[in-house]
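Hey, I was hoping to borrow your eyes for a little while. No rush at all, and the record is pasted right below.
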Amino acid sequence: MKFPGRRRHKHYFPVEDKDPIINQLHVVDRLKRNYICGIDQIVVDIEAKVDQAFLDEFGLQRGMSQVIDNDVTNALYDRLKRDDMIDYEFAGGTIGNTMHNYSVLADSRSVLLGVMSENIQIGSYAYKFLCNTSSRVDLDYLQPVPGPIGRCFTLIDDSGERTFAISAGMMNHLKPESIDKSLIENASALVISAYLMRTSGEETMTQATMQAVKYANDAGVPVVLTLGTKFLIEQDPAWWAEFVEKHVDILAMNEEEGEAITGFDDPLLAADKALDWVDLVICTAGPKGLFMAGYVDDEKKRETEYPLLPGAIPEFNQYEFSRAMRRSACKQPIKAYSHTAPYMGGPDTIKNTNGAGDCALAAVLHDLSANVYHKINVPNSAKHEQHAITYSSLAQISKYANRASYEVLVQHSPRLSRGLPEREDSLEQTYWDQ
């Protein structure tokens, strides 16, 4: 596993670079590996530039995420192909993107659960999904289905507003019996999205997801939920708040989704409110940057060396050098917050915002997983005298997540094609040294 972010220390994990003589005494020693697990609606993203007349033609509501039937899907796709309007076709899905980006950043295994067409033809949507997913993502647990996977049309108008049209195909037919209990119980985290709860009729994705969540809750495996879209949360915010409080340990959202579930339009206040339900919150806020909020035991808190920041919570970043802990593991829990402005002020030209939040979450998951990796390989390290769920401080994770999401903003694909560069050509090392 690669170390997350950037450090001054030469050895992030002091377990591989051993003295040659000591190595001879422990020839059979092998590093123990961990993994994270995610459940997703397996889809291919199709991106195109359109106008309002196009949206009206197919009965699509601007700026919303909506499910369309097969007839509309085929007509929509044929029109896009006929008029040569398609810009890109990528393997997609909120959790699929997150698992891929995690494996690229961490150079480590992740496991993706969902469905896959049992008969795959070259050039088909299923084929494109497999071709554009990191080989580090374990797809062996996908459930075969006798039909197509999903298609998600991302339709972008002149203002940059994105309208999503989703053709479900068989993507929501993951069965509860396809969830491997031991796989979930031994994972470092289970990652799900709010989209998995949007099913109907004979679709079984929601039941399968709840089965996995139960396995994770019972085994003490952190459940990570990304909210996905404000429109879904706005339909029943009270239900979502109850679900999050009962089943979720880590919540990822943007400022709009945060307002939908908490009622606060300020991302810091939304993150603070979410701490009533979960142990750790990641809130992306576009040009405002990224906010993180978590708990730390009073005796383990570490004060920042940065200037104290004003905000809805005065001097909220006072303890941002702290490592996040579960609230239940704290004798005297206190809240800690951090904020990082967009990397380099944000890109000059944003080519794509689809997937930037997924990539930020992947960076956070990398740090959580690195903490588990280090703990199982160096269990007696002083690092683990504190029962933290992160390896790094909130401030460092926030910087890392911002840096990772920048890579998605400056490219068209929502998925990373490589990890972060070993040397920053565009910015001095001081970004990481601060």
Remarks:
- The mean pLDDT is 88.
- The chain has one domain: 20-41+94-149+171-433.
- Residues 20-41+94-149+171-433 form a domain with the UDP-N-acetylmuramoyl-L-alanine:D-glutamate ligase fold (CATH 3.40.1190.20).
- The longest helix spans residues 356-377.
